[in-house]
Amino acid sequence: MPKPFRLLMIDDNENDAEMATRALRDYTIPCELVYAREGASALERLNTPGEPVPSLILLDLSMPKMDGLEFLEQVKANPRLRPIPVVMFTSSESPAQIRQCYARYASCYIVKPFDGKEFTKVLRDLVNFWTHFAILPEVA
Fold first, then answer.
1. Around 65, how many Cα atoms within 13 Å sit in the side-chain half-sphere?
2. What's the maximum distance between 2 C-alpha atoms anywhere in the chain?
């Protein structure tokens, strides 16, 4: 039996986390959404022995303590976590930040939609892509 799709969302905006929860609650694809408010606590969780590894990380850029770029660098520097796809999901449209994310091996960069319906559609399409079309590596 395949492992359930587990999405780790790292974002200091709790409203976005609530919208993501609502978007995926009744979706046809079973998805476990795990939320962390900032990068340092998410990294601690990822490094906790026995903690299930996410199928995908949805990452904001601007957060307290550890921003998205630093988190991305640390995940991609860790051989155990490196295979996990990291999708940047942020409000920044800065070309420099987009380049910085891809230079640190982000899998994708999505600018957050401000409309709730579009947010739901983008998130569901993202989960659909990563569950039906992309082949994800096994992560120990």
1. 13
2. 42
For the stretch 49-92, pLDDT in tens is: 988 999 999 999 999 889 999 999 999 999 999 999 999 999 99
What domains, with CATH codes, occur in the chain?
5-133 (3.40.50.2300)
In this predicted structure, the answer to whether residue 113 has a pLDDT above a threshold of 90 is no
pTM over 0.90: yes
What sign does the dihedral 51-89-87-62 (CA atoms) show?
negative
Q: Which residue, chain included where needed, has tokens 């976005």?
A: 16
Strand order through the sheet with 108-111: 31-36, 5-10, 56-59, 86-90, 108-111
Tell which phi-psi region holds residue 22, choosing left (phi > 0), alpha (psi between -120 and 50) or beta: alpha
